[in-house]
Amino acid sequence: MPTLDLINLRKQFGSVTNPVVAVNDLNINVADGEFLCILGPSGCGKSTALRMVAGFEEPSGGDVQIDQQSIVNMPPNKRPTAMVFQKYTLWPHMKVYDNIAFGLKLRHLPKNQIDQEVQASLELVGLGKYGDRYPAQLSGGEQQRVAIARALVLKPKILLLDEPFSNLDALLRVRLREELRQIQRNLKITAVFVTHDQEEALSLADRIAVMSKGELQQLDKPATIYARPKTLFVADFIGAMNMLDGEVSGGVVKVGNQRLPAPAECVAAPAKIAIRPEDVTVTQTGEGAWHGRITQVSDLGHYRKVFVQSPDLGMLKLYLPKSVEVNDGEMITFKPTRFLIFQGPLPPFEVKL
Amino acid sequence: MKIDPTPAYRQPTIFGYRISTRTLRREAFGIFALVALTLIIIGPMMTVFLWAFAERWRQPALLPTEWGLSYWYETLARNDITSAMPMSLGLALTVTALSAIICLPAAYAFARINFPGRQGLLLSFLAVNAFPRFGLYVTIAVVFFRLGLVGTLPGVILIQLVNTLLTMIWIPTSAFQNIDRALEEAALDVGAGRLRVFFQITLPQVFPALAAALLLTFVSTFYEAQGALIIGIPGIRTMAVLMYSYINNQIVVQYGAVISLMLWLPSLVLLSFAQKFLRGNTVSSGFGV
Q: Is B188–A82 a contact, with Cβ atoms under 8 angstroms apart?
C-alpha cells in the first residue's frame, strides 16, 4: 500500500554564509489512496517540497519515504512517482501516442500491451481518438489531460501534480479538477497536489497542508482548516476573514467599543479576533449590538457580500442571506455568532455565542 | 438621362489582381521595399549569371550579344580548378565537423553551467569579428610560420575554425538555453536516463538550430578566402582563393563569373536539401525567424 512520508524535510538554497531556506523541517504523511493538497502563496516552498519527492531537488536534510523506504538516494528516473507539470511539458516532436508510450517503451513492454495501455489511459482522460495528433494541435486543457494520462499510464505509487491547472481558464480549471478527482477516486491512487488556489485545494483534497515561508502551518481536513485555522496565517489565507485587534482581560475581550466573552484560559494580553463574514446575524439595536454604515453591496447569487464601515472597527466584510434587506448607505446592526481569539503562537480559542 | 449604377472607375491592377488605390497607397512602401530588395539581391546574381554564359557583352547592350560555354570549358580544363574544388569541399566539411565537435559541447556547457567568467567568455567569441580580420590573420600567420603551419592543410583548418566559433557557439547556446528544462524533467520522471533524455528529448528540440548553425558554418567556410589565402599560399589553394586571384589578375570577367557560379553550387544543393528534408519552417526557426 503506497504511503508517502516527508520527515523533517529541509531544503536551503544560496551560499553557506547566506542560506535561503525554502523548506524548513517539513513533516507530512500521506496515507494510501489519499489526495493531499499542499497549499500556500507563491514562494512558500510547496513546489520545492514536491520536487524533492519527484527527485528534481536534493533535500538539504530529512527524509522522503515511500512505503517506509527512503527514496532520497534514488535518481528521479528510478522513483515510483509520476509528475504532472504546470506547463504541460508534452514533448512537441512526438505524437500524443508516443508521448504516453515513451515511459512504457523504456520498460520494454510488448508492443500490443503498450498499444492497449496507451489507449486505455487516453480513454480515461476522454481523449480516445487523439493518439495521432501532435501536442501543438491540442488545446491547453487537452494537453494537460494527455500529461495526466502520461503520468497515470505508468501506474505510479504516488501521483504528483505541480499546479497543473493554473495555466487554464477558470471554467476549464473547475471541470478538469472534477475529472481529476473522479479519476483519482476510481484508481484509488495516492496523490499530492500543489496549488496556490485555496478553492482548488478545498474542493479537491482529503487533507490540506498549508505552508508559509517554508514551514507547515496546518495539516487538516478542508472543513477543519476553514473552521479552525491553527495560525493567524491560515486564518487570513483561507477564505475571507475579518481580523480585529482586541485586548483580553478577566474573561472579556475588548474589541473597539465592544466587549465579547473570552474563555477563562485566555491570558490578559492583546489578541487578534478573527470573524468569518458569514458568522454574523443581523439584529435589533440593543446590548452587544455592533453597528455601521453599509458602503457596498454585491449580489453573489445565493448570498450578498456587504461592506460595512464601523465607527470603531473600520471596514468589515459580511456575508448575509438574501432574506435580509440591505441597501447602500443605510445603517445596519449585527452581532458576531462565532469568532476565534488568537494570542501569540498558540492555537486559537473558538467562541460561539 | 440614364445613370450608370456603378460608375466606371479604373482600378489599378497588378499582374491581373485588382487593387484599390487605397490599398495601393497604404502598401506603397511595402511594395517599394519588395521591389528594391529583389533588385538588390537578384540584380548582382543575375549579372554574374549572365557574365558566366556571355561570349561577348559590350556597352550599351542590355544583354550579352553572344552566348556560349567556351569559358566553362576553358575553366574546367584547368588543373588548379579541378583540384581546388575537392579541396574546398573537403576543407569546408572537415572544418564544419571539427567545429561541431569542439563547439557543440561548449555551447551545451555555456547554456547549462553557470561557471565564473561565462559571460566574458561568450562575448570573447565576438572579438574575432570585432577586429579587422586581415590584421588578425597576418599576426597569426607570423606565429604559424614559426610553427611550420603556413602552406599546410592543418594551418588552414585552424585559421578557418577561428571564423566558425561565433556561429557555432552562439546559435546552439541560445537554442539549448531556450529549451524548457521541465521537458527534460518530464522525461526523467517517466524513467529515461540522462543520455536518453539528451538524445531523444533535448537534441530533437535544438535540431533546427543546430542544422542552421552547421549550414551557415559550412557555407561561410566554403567561401572563406582571406584566411585561406594568407595561411594557405602556396600549398593550399581553395576555390575562393582561386576566384580572388582570377578576378585580380584577369581582365576577362568571365573566369571570375564561372568560378563564382561553381561556388554557388554546393550551397544551393545544401539549401534545397534543407528545404526538402527539414519540415517546413524548422530551418528558419533555427535562424530565429
A: no
In this predicted model, what pLDDT tens digit does every residue of A236-276 receive, in sequence order? 999 999 999 999 988 889 998 888 999 888 888 899 999 99
Q: Do B191 and A107 touch (CB under 8 A)?
A: yes
User: Which DSSP string do the residues of A17-50 spell out, in sequence order?
Assistant: SSEEEEEEEEEEEE-TT-EEEEE--TTSSHHHHH
Q: What is the DSSP string of B154-205?
A: HHHHHHHHHHHHHHHHHHHHHHHHHS-HHHHHHHHHTT--HHHHIIIIIHHH
pLDDT tens-digit series, residues A318-338: 999 988 888 888 899 999 999
- Helical spans, DSSP H, in A188-265: 198-204, 222-227, 232-237
ipTM above 0.90, yes or no: no
Average of pLDDT values for A142-152? 94
Q: Nearest chain B Cα to A147, which residue?
A: B186
Domain boundaries, given as residue ranges, for chain A: 4-230, 240-352
Q: Which three cell numbers stand for residue B46?
A: 543575375
CATH code of the domain in which B178 resides: 1.10.3720.10
Q: Which residues contact A128 (CB under 8 A, 6 or more apart)?
A: A119, A122
Which residue range(s) make up the domain with B181?
Answer: 78-286
Residue in chain A lying closest to B282 (CA): A93
Asked whether B263 and B221 are in contact (CB, 8 A), the reply is: no
B282 and B218 within one domain: yes
